Amino acid sequence: MRFTKDHEWVSLDGDVATIGITAYAAEQLGDVVFVETPEVGKSVTAGEGLAVVESVKAASDVYAPLTGEVLEANAALAEAPETVNQAPEADGWFAKVKIADASAYEALMDRAAYDAFLETL
Amino acid sequence: MTMQTVGRPTRPEDVQPLDSGFASLTGGRGLLQDEALIFERDGWGKTGVDLPAVDAAADDLGDLVRKSPIGLPGLSEPEAMRHYVRLSQKNHAIDLALYPLGSCTMKHNPRLNEKMARLAGFADLHPMAPLPTIQGALTLMDRLSHWLKTLTGMPAVALSPKAGAHGELCGLLAIRAAHEAKGDPRRRVLVPTSAHGTNPATAAFVGYSVTEIAQTDDGRVDLADLEAKLGPDVAAIMVTNPNTCGLFERDIIEIARLTHAAGAYFYCDGANFNAIVGRVRPGDLGVDAMHINLHKTFSTPHGGGGPGAGPVVLSEALAPFAPAPWVVHGPEGLTLVEETVEEAAQAFGRMSAFHGQMGMFVRAYAYMRSHGADGLRQVAEDAVLNANYIKARLSGVMTPAFPEGPCMHEALFDDSWLEGTGVTTLDFAKAMIDEGFHPMTMYFPLVVHGAMLIEPTETESKQELDRFCEALIALATAAKAGDVDRFKGAPYLAPMRRLDETLAARKPRLTWKPEPGVAPAPLAAE
Amino acid sequence: MRYLPLTPDDRAQMLGVIGAATIDDLFADVPAAARKSEPFDLPHHAGELEVERELSGLAGLNRAAGAGPFFCGAGAYRHHVPATVDHIIQRSEFLTSYTPYQPEIAQGTLQVLFEFQTQVAALTGLDVANASMYDGSTACAEAVMMARRVTRRKRAVLSGGLHPHYAATTQTIAHAEGMDIVRQTVAIDAEAAVIEAIDSETACVVVQTPNVFGVATDVTAIAEAAHAAGALLIVVTTEAVSYGLLKSPGEMGADIAVAEGQSIGNALNFGGPYIGLFTCKEKLVRQMPGRLCGETVDADGRRGFVLTLSTREQHIRRDKATSNICTNSGLCALAFTVHLSLLGETGLRQLAAINHAKTQRLAKALAAIPGVEVLTKRYFNEIAIRLPGNATQMVEALLEDGIVAGVPFSRLDPAAGLDDVLLCAATETTLDEDIDAFAQALSRRIG
Asked: What span, in angstroms and rounded, lies between the C-alpha atoms of B466 and C102?
């Protein structure tokens, strides 16, 4: 699993990247009430908007960590947005994206680097 | 991701409920009456209005007649009175106690205004009645316009916007029209980081992209940043003055000059006009358009959320683009220019049907006439005095966000004084409820951490201000002494405890629905 | 001054606590060039008596609708409001309360809004209603904006029977958002003409029933055509009492239904404050503008109400909000819901039936006059009539006879070329004698 400074995580299986927000982010947001997931087939560019996660009082943009095409959005979140709070780095994933460039994934922070980054906040 | 969080829980936490040791036999709580929904009383066939029987049938309408039940219960008059009076008991109100809501100007709502608005000549007047029959209404609009223009030092006013945000829209649409008329459509609007949410929302609505201007350490617009961001693609800046931190923008004239030099217009959010009315004219500051919240500065009632009114004063540059309709003096009396043809050819369009919030015009005009120029000046002075008094009395226990210099009509505190107590701004606010006060504006402006914005207005007596300060000092002291449960479980004494907003957002229930199996029996289809 | 509690002593004491010598010290940040020391050229303060005298004088220069035979409609209707309504909206706790952002001390307002939302959804036959908008025309404009967000298409088709002010308002706002507004030619009975204009770029079609000429239309076929093209149907109603007689927009396939709610609970007030009703299908709720009140529970497990789905709104989403709207029409919504609770379904249906019957009588009386053509065949409580001459001049003439005959269509839309068309409404407040007097006077003037 890799991480961004914007608190997204990515895990890669072949050329399919599963993306979500980290446990730290989920805790900061408070109760998640809704996730606006991207449309299947949408092209996303690293650093641009992928999804929006809403808590009661705030709406936060989630950025795509990598460039690619959306293959699947987590439909279960519509009925159970609390999954993001309960299992942010597992069942609370937002989207699966087919990526072209695996090296971009390698360039992201690993768990140790992300944890160190969190210490600085 | 952008970490947009105000970092507070939206569900009640587990705190022990208060045990008073006394319980009534049937759950009654003295004067405080509970009240079910009108849909839960089985009044499906009832009506509380006596209407004559009707002979004619609606055969001419054939299939267009509604056959399905609507699903509306009815109440007799005594039941209706009880229902709504019981509900009213659960509301805080200005008539009850202070609402220290920064940016809202919760001043007393004079009852003379209500009486005047209900005169048959105003209330029972149709907007499209023939012109000879509405001269009094047009005259009032004309006089109100005169007061607004004189108080602001601006040459024109658009009365039709129905609320402050609607006024912002009007102002930006006029600005956009002015640029288009010059053949120079511009794409960006500059907005300070401390701006009210309606400012960027309105700019985006009108198709502009929004760029933020930084704030200095003393809470004002950063001139250098403004200058750097002004350019040929900037249509306007939107600045609140006094600003949302409760401070007068000292460099306002320079801000206007820089803006105009770049070919842009200066939109001023007039929400805080109460601080300067009768003493300072926005027209003298270089403003091109400013909305005035009649429900703030000019006392029209908040009514639980509306209606408001947001007339917009305009500079010479923008006046030609004002929306229809407006009042003009004609050969046979006053008339309305209503349609955007001929005289109104440059008008950017129409903000809504008819002519504006006449009911609010009558109220605001009665207020202005009651106060006069001298009274309005006193309003601003007392509003500023009251806010500074609160700031002075509370600065010993709470941390002002901008301690240097006076504030205007509202005092802003941050939450650094709560550090280490385990009590948040939210908790503190909820504990104020138990002391008998509505919480102040919290978490706004966004530029200050855990912001608490307090605006008393001029209609608070010194006694009430002292009562308020003493309550906050007592609460602040308790927080610092570690009395955490008082705050975490607050409010304890309100008609309702803290509500689960998470549940409301995750599982929205926006209308009453009959329980399956518990038939409410709305009227059967014919 | 009666609204200002501070005494000179208070002020002096307070300045002492603050540590300022004079009030001017507190205004030190105001640039010298902008300080006004000389008084404004406006009158001094005045007592209640003086203010009443001036305002009564102005009110006296207006002719109240109740002063004689009166037939104006065109988007605002004269109805009788029970005394209870005005009494309740003047209670301190409703009149002088704020938006219910602190729900623990605003359950009165919130429960009222929840009941209001339920009633409004029931009236239109759709799933959810918001807590109201400024008025029917801005609700219409907002509905078109919403259709754009939902369909991601840019074109809206407005029918030829839509109230011209509603069309103008929608055009003003939509133009700003870069939408393409197609306004069909004004026509008496042509809501269905929108069907021909629907294509793959259409976000929505907007039809009005009863339309500005009073014509009631079954829009089911329009709904089908719109949906087949992936567009939304928006149905506008300017006379809310009509929901008590006519098939609801929901039943006819509307995706969004908006209305002017003034007819229920709210006086004419020369055009404002009014109240916009806004309803839509459940699946569209997250794109809906305006405040929403929802049910929940408190820390003790008791049922309560809160504003919800706030992330759509300006104070959170800022430049990505669904609208910039900040207020609803709170007190007007209260008046609406109190009146509707008193009426109940039985009363509303009866009220609607009376309105319709009165208008049938009016139509019959006017149709009998040689030279007058009643253009509206199927109506609720308003008809359009064609006169032998200019409608505006006829209204002026009839005014001399003590009759306020209605609204000339050319006042709403001077460019439509319908200068001989007059819009006339009749409600439960219209006396049979009024109708007779109108018909007689009109007949005399024509003949």
From this structure: 23
Q: Closest residue of B to A9, CA-based?
A: B1
SS3 of C168, please? helix
What number is the ipTM of this complex?
0.97
B398/B403 Cα distance (integer angstroms): 11
Give me the CATH number covering residue B383: 3.90.1150.10
Tell me which chain B residues have a C-beta less than 8 angstroms from the C-beta of A81.
506
Domain identity same for C76 and C89: no
B16 interface with A at CB cutoff 8 Å: no
Evaluate whether residue B77 is within a structural domain: no
Distance to chain A for C234, nearest Cα, Å: 25
Task: Please give, rounded to a whole number of angstroms, the shortest distance from the CA of A60 to a CA of chain B.
Answer: 5
Per-position DSSP letters for C37-92, written without gaps between them: -SPPSS-----HHHHHHHHHHHHHTB--GGGS-B---TT-------HHHHHHHTSH
CB < 8 Å to B429, chain A = none
**Structure tokens, B407:** 């504030």
Give the residue carrying structure tokens 């006379």: C239
Q: C231-262 pLDDT, tens per residue? A: 999 999 999 999 999 999 999 999 999 999 99
Residue B445: asked if its preceding bond is cis (omega within 30°), the reply is yes
Residue positions counted in chain B: 526
List, for residues C324-378, the tens digit of each pLDDT value. 665 789 999 999 999 999 999 999 999 999 999 999 999 999 999 999 999 999 9
B13 in contact with A, Cβ within 8 Å: no
Q: Could you give the number of structural domains in chain C?
A: 2
C361 and C321 within one domain? no
Which residues in C lie closer than 8 A to residue A33 (C-beta atoms)? Answer: 311
Per-residue b or e along B147-163, where b marks 16 or more CB atoms closer than 10 Å to that residue's CB: bbbebbbbebbbbbbbb
Q: What is the CATH number of the domain that holds B186?
A: 3.40.640.10
Residue type, B155: P
